[in-house]
Amino acid sequence: MKATQQLAMLTVLVVMSGQALAQATPGSASVKTSPAEAQPWEYNLTVDGYIIPDGTSYVNPVLTADHNWLHLEARYNYENLRTGSLWAGYNFSWGDVDSGDAWEFDITPMVGGVFGRTNGIAPGLEVSLNYRKKIELSLTNEYVFDTDSKSGNFYYAWPQLTYSPVEWFHVGAVAQHTVAYHSPVNIQRGFLVGFSRRMRDSHKKWEFTTYVFNPGISGTNIVLEAGFSF
Fold this sequence. Notes:
The chain has one helix spanning 3-23; strands at 42-51, 58-67, 70-76, 83-90, 92-94, 103-116, 120-131, 135-146, 154-166, 169-176, 188-198, 205-213, 221-229. It is mostly beta strands and 230 residues long. The protein has a single domain (3-229), classed as Porin (Beta Barrel), CATH 2.40.160.40.
């Protein structure tokens, strides 16, 4: 897909989400919140270790902080190696599976600044749909406008589908389009297997996931991910 088409798709998604939220009736959609007196901020630290057999292996940390509608995020080695990015966005949510609802839909349009080996501005979108904490479909994507050279503009996407037969175990399918490292295929596809554990009487949660991209072909890559929510 050409860069202009990818940018158009991302723009349409952001505009449509904004229109839908503007037309929503009271009670049909809400800003994602948590009891302020109990947990004013929610944090998540995720560290991905990329094992690239034919290239440079690296570590990709991502830290997010959420307070009601506000979403803040910091990344490193995400858009490119030796490159950081800072993000701000707005959280919206329909339903709450933790409160017993069957469905939950979350969407966070955001904008970020990219600096380092790649410098630019990036609009992005994080979307997830969860059914009874059993099935979750999510998408993280962005379009980076390289301020040094138009040839450096690119589209990044990470769609993922997971199934959790029990609370502590999940499997699924994943794909990725990135320029952080070279791959023999434009869109990498693979599978994931993971385990999680929520600390008793606490909102804190550990999660460990292994991703295998391009299995069975040249250029198989493995990503080892550890996440902690607190």
